[in-house]
Amino acid sequence: MAVKTPCPISRQQFKEHAKPIEVTINGIPMQAPAREFSTGSLGWYLNGKMSVTIDGKPVTVQIGLNLTVSGSKELAKDPA
Questions:
Q1: Cβ proximity of 8 and 14 under 8 Å
Q2: Three-class SS of residue 77?
Q3: Is 57 left (phi over 0), alpha (psi -120 to 50) or beta?
Q4: Is 72 exposed, middle or buried (0-12, 13-18, 19+ CB in 10 A)?
Q5: How much is the pTM?
Q6: How confident is the model over 38-57, as pLDDT tens digits?
Q7: Pairing, β 28-32 against β 21-25
Q8: 3-state SS assignment for residue 60
Q9: Whole-angstrom Cα Rg for the chain
Q10: Residue 20: which region, alpha, beta or left (left: phi > 0; alpha: psi -120 to 50)?
Q11: What is d(CA 54, CA 70) in angstroms, rounded to the nearest whole number?
């Protein structure tokens, strides 16, 4: 079994300091905001739709992008 990568920051540090990440898809810049996923992992998420041209014809594509901080799911939860 693979060794899990420990997360070098705390959940609080992520929440206070993680900034949106700019992602460029097909030449179009987009912002992926920082978030906490329902699994407890931390990262960035981007979704939406855009048009891509294939053989001169526009097609609509669905965008779904997760960037997950390795080891963040195992971080201690914030006190309630």
A1: no
A2: coil
A3: beta
A4: buried
A5: 0.85
A6: 999 999 999 999 999 999 99
A7: antiparallel
A8: strand
A9: 16
A10: beta
A11: 35
